[in-house]
Amino acid sequence: MRLTSLDVFRGIAIATMLLVNNPGSWEWVYPPFLHAEWHGFTPTDLVFPSFLFIVGVAMTFSLGKYQQGADAPPTSVYWRILRRCALLFAIGVGLNASTSILNWLFNGTVPDWSILRIMGVLQRIALAYVIAALAILKLSPKHQWALASALLLAYWGAMVLVPVPGFGPGDLSAEGNLAGFIDRLILTKDHLLNRDIGFDPEGLFSTIPAAVTVLVGYFTGEWLRRQPRVTATSWQLAIFGLSCLVVGRLWGFVFPINKQLWTSSYVLFSAGWALLLLAAIYETIEVRHWRQWGWPFEVMGLNAIFAFVGSGFLARILITYHIGSGEDAPNLKTWIYETLFVSWAGQMNGSLLFAIGTVLLWWLILLWMYRQQWFFKI
Q1: pLDDT of 172-199, one tens digit each?
Q2: C-alpha dihedral over 273, 276, 279, 283, to 10 degrees?
Q3: Is the confidence at residue 64, as pLDDT, over 80?
């Protein structure tokens, strides 16, 4: 069984990710297109967990069958999972390294690999995927739910009870939180995104609750497989979503909703929104068969990883390649932004139009790939 609504949802997620990741200037961005500075939640904070949620739903169709039989999954399944994890992780590290390589090619700056960032979006997807996959293959459904609950509670307990040297227990600031401390111990400060304070929003320790986001998607997919494609199913999805929103919001009073820490309350709160969006898409696509509106997003959803990696690499080229010479020479991105957008739309609207133009560019590329039946899969 294939859910077209899943491809559409994935397409909406990647299109939004391209939109929020590619403003013309980070100094000119409308607030809804920015992440919350620390505690709190904006529409942009829904993008990444939605993508992980979708990964989990998709795992229902690739791994769910192994749970139904009495026989253990063949060894080849585990190797395929590990290969996918390793490949995704390597692509993510390569994307991080590409900035230094491009600076060397275009500007002659010798790469300093001692400060290479190790983690990132693809790396988190890879690790969360492998943790969830092993839980799916090794545990019964009841124990999977127990594990997901235990991980959220244990992460909460660790973050508020375990003391961090120099800060004490329960410090959820960027400098004093336990997740950052553990990442500094394992990865060292120089290999984190924010080297000044030693913190990475896609760090190792906070990937544990991110794996629960994948499991929530898997639970949703498993439930959907057994349901008829009727409006009642959409309503039940919506009710589940509202329940997660309420529990996540209430939990947030004692363990704040925070994307960068991927707090347990954030897992449930973001999952609630993802369930509500899926319910709306499921109702229109699968139940009412209003498919035409979703086709542009389906085109993007079928090549989402390619779009993310390609757009990230292109963005790095635009930033590292300079027009002209001298210290004041603008990079290619700034030149395009100021010449083609700011000149007639102004700073703020020009920045937004640059991001929209990026989405349209990649939609055209993915449309061509779609028509050629080229689908990039890992």
Answers
A1: 999 999 999 999 999 999 999 999 999 9
A2: -120
A3: no
